[in-house]
Structures are given as structure tokens and as C-alpha cells.
Amino acid sequence: FSISTYNKIWTDAQKDLDIQLRREREEFLQPEKDHVKVFKLLAASYIKYMQIFRNLETAHDQLVHWQKRKVIRQVLDGVIGRILEMKKEMVELENSEFHYIDNILEDLKLLPEDIEVPIPRYFVKEKLEVLQQREKILDQILLNAGLQTQKRVKAMTFEEAIKVIQVAERARQGRCRAAFMKQIYLQEKRERQTKLQVQMGPNPDDAATCIQKVWRGYIQRKKTEKMREEEMIFLGMSLPPHLKAASISQMRAGQINALQGEVQERHEEVIIKEKLREMEGLNIKETLQDQIGQCFIECRHIIGRFPDYPTKETGGSMAILSEKTPEQVAAELAAKKEMALQKKKQTGKKEKEGGNEKTKGKKPQKTGKKVSLPAVKTIKEGWKMAPSNFLSILEEGNSQYKAVWQNRDEGWDFLQDHDPELIKEEKREEVEEEIRVQVDELMQQKLENLKLAVDGEKSDKQKKGRKSEKVRAAMMSLVHRTIDSLYRELVEEGLLIKAKTVNLSDYVGKYSYLGTTLRQVDIEPMPSLADVRQLIALYGILPLGSQTVHEKAPLVKALLLAGPAGVGKKMLVHAICTETGANLFNLSASNVAGKYPGKNGLQMMLHMVLKV
């Protein structure tokens, strides 16, 4: 496929996404009481997002233009998160993790393969070098420690060994006897043919016919093979002979060119950023200082004193330069101070109450304690789509595509290289942020001098919170240790194990085509292996592969893989690690027992696992 093909795939995916977003704005805002209609609405949206997901993933993987891939990546993360939100709504609606939508697929003229969850290739591709280096280190640690990654073979008893030898020996004798009888049969056959030839005499015509048959067959096969090669070259499906010899060198040259392009791309970014800092840095710095100074003066005229400078955690000068009046800025800063004081008082009261309770003794717990449960959407109230964390990402990516890439003329860009103007806009924000941090330090000192000179007061320095002694004592043992040493210790203790290279597609299983039919006669279908594979991809792989999806998608704390031996539970765990490049820790009770004794030992082990 050419670059234009993948550009068209991207364009079609963005059009489908725009239509889907408009459809959601129209249909998901009104409450709906019909259970069947709601499920069909969610299932249709789930299928549509899955098709968009497949197209965007293909375009992201094959396009060369890194600025396009960056926009696609943002939309791709949003689509993945939206799919997980749709899945959560379907689960809450049906109270089941498994859904049967074969009737909807039939109406849409789609196959089950069209809704198979694709695993984005950038999960592993973007950190391939790190994963390869980590695998080398793991192999070296296992080799130095003399640890075996495979289970030991169970030794056979003396009787079992004799039985195996007897079976093998009897089979060998049977094969020898059969071969001997075959030789006798062939020898007798040759003797009979020789007697017949001696009786009838040699026939030169038969010998010539036999030689001609073999020769003509050989010549015709050569001609057919040559014609087939010429046809493939004519159709463009095979390279001519003089180009095949240079294909390996050309591939190598292409790889080198790609690496050179990446290096040149990074160099261009650095050059553009330095030019922006040289040309516009001074103007940006002066403008920020003037705006912040003007805000100080306005605040003092209105509230009678200079405001406190916002901390880095609250945004620094961004809180001052936001589109707010000086009164609002001063009120927000005062409210934050009051909130901090109230929190300190509350924590102090809780600590005192906790100490009194310990001295008095434990009180019996009440059995009728109220537990906060998540709100369940009933049909009487009417179903309504929950607020989304990813619609804003999709809207932003869609608007960015329309503004920059939809009507862009790329006839001049044959190499699909980067666009310097887009880099300038992106790097200008980074330069402004770097300069703003420097200006914050200068203006904070200037504000302190103004307060001291005009109002005669010193600004209160905020005290940083200190960790409790217990937390610090637990962490001190790990602070000065490197990740490599922790990694080595976990491997040597057998907690971090090497994952087998298994893809999720290796877990073979077909889709259940009778799910809807069985439910119509009040029979709950048995989930198929394809359904299990889908859930592993949705709950295990997609949230681990993308940081954005992991932070904002519906939380899945754990997965339970249960079943008899040999059904593929461990295979699915290894597949999750392979598809996402994750570490595999064996924290089962039998494996942990005796390695880190005591409560403090277990806490230290968990800190090590989380740090690695």
C-alpha cells in the first residue's frame, strides 16, 4: 500500500468519528427506559468505535509523518478509553461481562472478526529497545544465578523405564521385520521382471519412449516455471532478477535512511527551539514581567495590600495571568489558605480522637453499618449515559484534525517529512513555559522586596509537609538502591520471572454464533474462547499499554482467571505481558513464603515490586 492509501484510511476513520460524536450528542442525552433499545444503542456504538479503532491503529502504524502520527495517537487513546466506557455501561446494564450481539452484526453485514479487539502495535514498538535490553539483563541474571526457568522433569521409576525400553525395542524389531519382508518382496518382483524380459527380448522402441517421456516432462516444467516468473514480474508482484540481488542492500539502506531521518528530526526540533528562544525569548520575558507587575499594582489598589505569590503546585504565574479579575485572584488565594488551615485542624482532631479511642478500648462494630454502593440505573428512572473522561480528548483531536490536516495540500510533501511551522507552534509553548518558570523566581523575589519596602511585612513561607516516621523508616532502605539492584534481587528471589513470548492471537477460539438465539428461548449461552480473549484484551492489555487510558479509563483492579488445568490461564497471563511489554511477578503465597518474613518484610517486598 502507498502513503495515500493510509492517508485515506485515516480520513475515513476521522469522518466516522465525527459522525459518531454527533450521534452521541443527539441520542445519549435523553433518558431511555427501554432496556432492549438501550443495549442496541450501546452495542452499535461499541461496534462503530471498534471499527474506528482498527482503522486508526493501522494508519498510526504505517504512516511515516510523525506529526500526523502524534494527532492519530491522541485520538486513538481517546477511542480506546471510549470503548472501555461503553463496555462498562453494557456490563452494568446486563449484569454480565459477556454480550451476544450476533444479531446486530448480521443487521450491519459484519463478521465477528470485524469487532475483534486489535492490539496496538505501538505498545511494544515505542519501547522495543528498552524491552530488548531488559530481556538481555534478565537472561544474564538468570545465567549468573544458575536459576532454571523450566520445571524439573519428574524422574521415572525402574519399572516404568523398563516398560518404555521394551515398547521401543519391540517397535524397532517390528520395523526391521517389515523392512526385511519388503526387501524380499522387491527382490522377487525384480527376478520375475527379469525372467519376462529375457523371454520376450529387449524392445528399443519402448526404451526410447520412456526416455522421451522423462525428458519432455522435464523441459515442460522448466518452461512453465519461466512463464510463471515472467507473468509475476509483469504484474508487479515479483522483482526482476537483476533487482533481487540488490534487495537486501536496499532494505539495509532504507533502514539507515529511516534512522537518519529520526536523528535529523530531533536535530530540527532542537534547532527550532533554540531559534525561538533567541528571537522571541526576551520579548516573552519582558511581557510576562510587565503583566505580573501590573497585576500586583492592581491588586494593591483594590484590596489594599500586595497578594501572595502562587506556588508551583497551584500554577505559579499562570494563576495570576488567567482570565480573572484581581478580586477573584485574591479571593481564590485566601480560600486556599483557609482550606489548608481547616485540613490541618481536622487532621489534628482525628489524631486526638484516635488516641482517646485506643486508650478506652475497641468498641464493638455495628452490624447495621451503612455502606455506600454505586448508583444502579433502573429502567423506571430511565437510563442515561454516564459522564465521559474521553469525549473531550476525542473532540480536541477531531477539531485539531479539521483545523490542520483535513484540507491540507500535501502535493509538495513527497517525503512526508515534518512541518516546521507546526513544530514552531508546539515549541513556542515549551519556550514560554520554561521562561515563565524563570520569571516566577524573579517576580517572587521582587514581590517580597515590594512588600518589605511598601508594607513593611515579610511573606510567609509555606511549610512543606513531612512524611511520618513510619513511612520514612520503611522507605529509607530502598531510597539509596538503584533499580538494577532491586531488579536483580527480585529475579534471584524468584519473584520476577521471565514471561514466555505468546501473542493473544495464539489463544485460538471461535465466536459464539447462537448467543442471541439461545437467549430468546431463555437459555444462557456458554461463553466462548473468543469472548475470553476479548475480555483479556479489554481489561488486561489496553489499560496497561497506554498511560492515558490507564489514568482515565474505568478502573479494573484485578482479573480472576479460573478453570481446570490445561485451559490456558497461564498462557493468557504471558500474552498480556508480551503484548504490553510488562514485567511478570509471581506473588503467590507458595512462592513468597519464607523469603520476606514478617509484616515489615512484606511491606518492603511490595515497595520493591512497585518501584521496579
TrEMBL record:
Extent of Basic and acidic residues compositional bias: 348-359
A molecular function GO annotation: ATP hydrolysis activity
Region span, Disordered: 339-370
Residue ranges annotated for the ATPase AAA-type core domain, each copy included: 559-600
Entries under InterPro entries matching the protein: ATPase_AAA_core, IQ_motif_EF-hand-BS, N-DRC_Component, P-loop_NTPase
PROSITE patterns per record: IQ
Biased composition (Basic residues): 360-369
Pfam short name (any one): AAA
Protein name as it appears in the record: DRC11 protein
